[in-house]
Amino acid sequence: MDAELFPRERAEIAPGAVHLPDWLDAALQRELLDACRRWARPPAGLRTVRTPGGGTMTARQVCLGLHWGPVPACPACGRAVRDNPACPGPHQYPYAYSRTAVDGDGAPVKPFPPLLGDLAHRAVTDAYGADACGAGPHGAGAPPPYDIGLINFYGADARMGMHRDGDERADAPVVSLSLGDTCVFRFGNTGTRTRPWTDVELRSGDLFVFGGPARLAYHGVPRVHPGTAPPELGLTGRLNITLRAGGL
Ligand SMILES: O=C(O)CCC(=O)C(=O)O
Ligand SMILES: [Fe+2]
ipTM, 2 decimals? Predict the structure, then answer.
């Protein structure tokens, strides 16, 4: 890694989208990596996600709390999603949340651990300030809690295309934690997959939070830089943990 004289600083990439470099210390990165390794084991462990077009995602994924994946058949017309793009029903939404790994081994998804809920709340508070959380414990009138963790594992050639995180029903900010190799994280706009966008370098330990006007912005990972993980972490590749409130 190139030498750097100055620490990297907090940056607001777009209104509501905040990058906090080096947010996780080395011990917490190690603890999260160990936990990711446990979560990635079967049942309902790391899997390859099929896309509605018949391809596969290059980043492999494991889910906690709720399972996110392709909708196998449309409840409105009963056909596989990619076979009937004209269906006005759930075909419009080729991905959904479920309680079991429907496109994996079919096992119940592992529970969402309290550690990740605590981290999500701390992350949002650090990103926006004390009262901005937008999700909380259950209770009358309280916003829904963080209850979904998606963990993406990127090998050297893995990517993630521009997309929106739009399958949740709560508007709490998405919290994203990076471990291992550095990547280019592309943060775009809410209207199109195309420019304008800003490319941000996310390194091991970085936090990125997007909420408010940025909650539904397109984003993706066009590139991972292999071999850039901190050697003491002991990870080859990149892990990303995104935390969301489902409101489902
Ligand atoms: O890997 C990343 O940094 C982004 C992951 C992501 O956008 C997602 O899981 O929806
Ligand atoms: Fe995303």
Answer: 0.99
